[in-house]
Design a protein that fits this description.
Layout: E1 4-9, H1 20-33, E2 37-43, H2 46-49, E3 61-65, H3 68-81, E4 84-88, H4 94-104, E5 108-113, H5 116-124, E6 141-144, H6 149-157, E7 163-165, E8 183-188, H7 196-209, E9 215-218, E10 232-235, H8 243-248, E11 250-255, H9 259-264, H10 270-277, E12 282-284, E13 301-302, H11 306-315, H12 318-335, H13 338-357, H14 360-371
Parallel strand pairs: 1-2, 1-4, 2-3, 4-5, 5-6, 6-7, 8-9, 8-11, 9-10, 11-12, 12-13
Helix pairs in contact: 1-13, 3-4, 7-11, 10-12
Length: 372
């Protein structure tokens, strides 16, 4: 079945300061390649308008809107008639848009939470502006960036009819092995206050301990008072079309996880998939569920502090480093490509369609039978 899909998301046109754009681009491109028609509706805001690195795309239609009335006036028919309408997290006025979608769309409606651990923490503290507890049950499908216990929480506590994990992916493919890498360790990510201690511990401190080696950090919003060691190159922004060469320039890529995601677990970042796809081995902090994505010691290396990073950079033999990179890349190609995410979404759509068509009493009887 070829679907007409409408996505209302934070941004697809600008990767500046957010991880949403790379996720939406990879998914939309994969869906298009599988024959689906994809439209992306994005709020026109100045901070993304000043940093657009994808104003148009050949795999989906992109439309900007300036206000809620404009969104409704220009796109009501498209939302109403679509087979699948997806609202993403962090969309401005997301609750109002969610109510509009779930009231007017005739197809399957889905909420794509690209920030699940942050969302769940915010819902508990009543500090979320883009989704509400009352709105969650109105969506046919809740797509979660986190797997593991988050799925049960969203279904059982918040009443989602159907919750499924849909991790990010990576729309870059490199070659296994980075023998000509110029720097020892690199990190790509927007500044985050709760992630900065991890970056200090796992990259800046090792850089000070290894002054003869080169390091690199790329990403916006870092405050001016960050003390960059002399052997650390800082790049304020790196567009997605430069990610392949960025990862290819490193012997290892670093992954540092935000506190909410680390606590909940089962929340892989796009860094893991991009580095693996580019053939660059990853050093990461640890979190529950890591082994369900990449196998520690075989496909990824775990470090808890600077001395463990230093030991990896100094002592891991080159053949093992390249072997880890090759194993991670093979795992990515087997389980984590954009095409596989698109196939998962197709499966979830069929599940949601069947769930909607099944009478509530029959569903309850089936669920009770499963619990016996």
């Amino acid at each position: 079945m070829k679907m007409n899909i409408v996505i209302i998301g934070l941004s697809i046109t600008s990767s500046w300061g957010n991880g949403h754009a790379t996720t939406y681009r990879a998914l939309a491109k994969a869906l298009s390649s599988r024959g689906h028609s994809v439209s992306f509706l994005e709020r026109d805001v100045p901070w993304y308008g000043e940093h657009r690195d994808l104003p148009v795309a050949d795999y989906c239609r992109i439309d900007l809107y300036g206000s809620l009335p404009e969104l409704a006036r220009r796109h009501a028919a498209r939302v109403r008639d679509a087979d699948l309408v997806i609202l993403g997290s962090y969309v401005p006025d997301g609750i109002a848009i969610g109510e509009w979608i779930t009231s007017g769309a005739t197809g399957i409606t889905a909420f794509y939470d690209i920030d699940t651990p942050v969302t769940l923490a915010g819902l508990e503290a009543n500090k979320v502006s883009y989704i509400s507890p009352g709105l969650i049950p109105r969506f046919d499908l809740y797509l979660s960036f986190s797997g593991g216990p988050a799925i049960g929480i969203i279904q059982d506590f918040y009443g989602s009819p159907l919750t499924r994990p849909l991790y990010c992916s990576a729309d870059v493919i490199g070659q296994a092995g980075t023998a000509a890498a110029k720097c020892s360790l690199g990190y790509l990510g927007t500044y985050s206050e709760d992630r900065q201690p991890g970056l200090e511990s796992l990259l800046l401190a090792p850089a000070r301990l290894l002054p003869e080696q080169a390091f690199v950090v790329a990403g916006p919003k870092y405050p001016p008072d960050v003390q960059w060691p002399n052997n650390v190159t800082y790049i304020p922004h790196l567009p997605p079309n430069e990610h392949l060469s960025f990862y290819g320039s490193q012997r290892y890529a670093l992954n540092v996880t935000r506190s909410d995601m680390k606590a909940l677990g089962f929340s892989p970042s796009v860094r893991l998939f991009e580095a693996a796809a580019c053939g660059t081995p990853v050093i990461s902090d640890n979190w529950p569920g890591m082994e369900t994505v990449f196998t520690p010691g075989k496909e990824i290396l775990i470090a808890a502090g600077p001395h463990e990073v230093v030991q990896i950079l100094r002592d891991v033999p080159e053949d093992r480093r390249l072997g880890i990179a090759a194993s991670a890349r093979a795992r990515f190609l087997k389980e984590h490509t954009p095409d596989q995410r698109a196939r998962q979404l197709e499966t979830y759509y069929q599940e949601a369609l069947a769930h909607r068509q099944t009478p509530k009493t029959a569903r309850q009887a089936s669920e009770c039978e499963e619990m016996k």
